[in-house]
Amino acid sequence: MKPYKVLVVDDSAFMRKIISDLIEKDADFQVTATAVNGRQAVDKVKELQPDLVTMDVEMPEMNGLEALKLIMLDHPLPVIMLSGINEEGMKETILALEGGAFDFIRKPSVSSSHDINSVGESLREQMKEAMLARERREARSASALLSTEGPPALQPPEPASSAPPFKLADKPDEGAAEQMPSREMKDIKAPIIRPPSPDTGKPAQSKRADKPPLPRSERTKSVPPRAKPEVGRIKTLSQQNSDVPSDLASPKPPIAGAAPGIPTVAGRDRKIGAKGLEKLVAVGCSTGGPRALKALLENIPADFPAPIVIVQHMPPNFTKSLAQRLNTFSPLDVMEAEQGMILRKGAAYIAPGGYHMKVMETAGGQYAVNLSKEEARNGHRPSVDTLFESLLPLKALERHAVIMTGMGSDGARMMKSLYEAGITSTFAESEETCVVYGMPRSAVELQCVSYILPLQDIAPRLVQVVK
User: Fold this and answer.
1) What are 113-121's contacts with CB under 8 Å, separation 24+?
2) Shortest CA distance to 291 belongs to which of 186, 122, 434?
3) Active site (annotated) includes residue 286
4) Confidence (pLDDT) at 65
5) How far apart are CA 364 and CA 368, in angstroms?
6) How many CB atoms lie within 10 A of CB 459?
7) Which has the closest alpha carbon to 6: 44, 58, 57?
8) Which residue intervals are annotated with compositional bias (Basic and acidic residues) in the record (predicted)?
């Protein structure tokens, strides 16, 4: 197999040499050209049609963000951004990820050979994942094209019992969940027999057993956590809009005065604590996550009745820029989490890069952020598994877990534990919209997912389930 062709773009000749050498340590990749600014990069992509581009963020004449927009418009291909750690570089990097960049790495310190080698390993891993993701997309497209050609093969249907419960190919027709006959819904909603309580000798009751039943029109719209997962299809724009509540674009709620002694986000005069919390949503993502989080959070209404805690694999400092950017889109109050913050409804908290984030119950019955510098888990700090694991003892809360696009399997194992412990619902982004279908696939394979949905359908369904 011929090596993949790579275009290296950087205004520094020294950095072009370093990055080229790091790339060619893997025989599967070959640097076929370099460019000194974004304008040259756009021209060489058009001329040489490389398989992948590494792009410096800050360059003269045309920067990496401007070049990325033109490349994705005319010749879309995987682009990995190289970012400095200054504030402007981090902001531009977040915008690049939002604009279609596959991922980013920070530029290596030229004075540290260890740092150069570490950056090289991350870069080569991202390049391999980018090529694998592209090949999978091309294979799906080819398969879809073949399926539309020629008459369909007539085969007898298989018995429903023989189909594996989490097979992604078995996608129901649009609206199948809503149109399911009442007899089938009764089968799905059969009561779960719980073991007797050691205190009373009677069967244990669900914490939500005393809630009034949903109206008949609503009962047919929901699928309980233990049913076969709902595998949604990508919908048209009009269908998507019909699913989104009319208040999604409502403005943020007025800011109240800050409570004394409770840490607040700089520049915000507000009370961040709230007693009586009953629900919590936890989200994990990695490669492709910034774009996915934008799509998720901009479609969650300001009156959402739960806080959202988020782990996005990202280095220190970048998570603050990410939170600031997402806050401009979302009706929710989005912030980088700080130690001791009291969680409240209508807010989203992003774990700071370099710190694990857990949710802990305080002595006063509130729920707060707990940050730590414990060892990396699954190669990450923050880790989705660490966040999800912290939810296991919080049984008084109605908990919901979401895994979206990302490399690896971080979060899947603890989602399985939460699922087996009776978590209210679990969501995974489906393959067709993932930048990298790694983390969600791992969760699906563990059979712990209630809803498998394309990205644009996750927020409307999450709002429906949580509310």
Assistant:
1) 116/18, 116/22, 119/22, 120/22, 120/25
2) 434
3) yes
4) 94
5) 11
6) 24
7) 44
8) 127-140, 207-233
Instruction: Identify the domain boundary among 88, 111, 135.
Output: 135
Q: Which of 115-119, 190-194, 314-318 has the lowest mean pLDDT?
A: 190-194
Active-site position among 83, 222, 286, 442: 286
Q: 3-class DSSP state for residue 382?
A: coil
Answer for the pair 278, 252: CB distance below 8 angstroms, yes or no. Answer: no
Compare 445 and 143 and report the one with higher pLDDT. 445
Residue 245 in tokens:
């509540």
| 356 classed as catalytic | no
Q: Which residues contact 446 (CB under 8 A, 6 or more apart)?
A: 412, 413, 415, 416
Report the chain's C-alpha Rg in angstroms: 24
| pLDDT of amino acid 229 | 61
| CATH at residue 398 | 3.40.50.180
Helix residue ranges, H only, 256-370 = 289-297, 318-329
Q: Which domain holds residue 455?
A: 279-466
247 domain residue, yes or no = no
In total, how many domains does the chain have? 2
CB 309 within 8 A of CB 343: yes
Q: Per the residue annotation, which of 410, 425, 442, 450 is the catalytic one?
A: 410
Residue type, 172: P
Catalytic residue among 51, 313, 390, 450: 313
pLDDT category of residue 136 using cuts at 50, 70 and 90: confident
H-state helical runs in 200-317: 216-219, 237-243, 289-297
Helix count and strand count (H, E) for the chain: 14, 15
Q: Are strands 451-453 and 425-429 parallel, antiparallel or unpaired?
A: parallel
Residue 100 has phi, psi (to 5 degrees) of 120, 0
Work out the burial of residue 309: count CB atoms within 10 Å of its CB; fewer than 13 is exposed, 13-18 middle, 19 or more buried.
buried
Is 313 annotated as catalytic? Answer: yes
Tell me the CATH number at 62: 3.40.50.2300
pLDDT band at 127 (very low <50, low <70, confident <90, very high): very high
For 75-103, the pLDDT digits (tens) are 999 999 998 877 788 889 999 999 999 99
In this structure, is the dihedral angle defined by the CA atoms of residues 59, 62, 65 and 69, taken in order, positive or negative?
Answer: negative
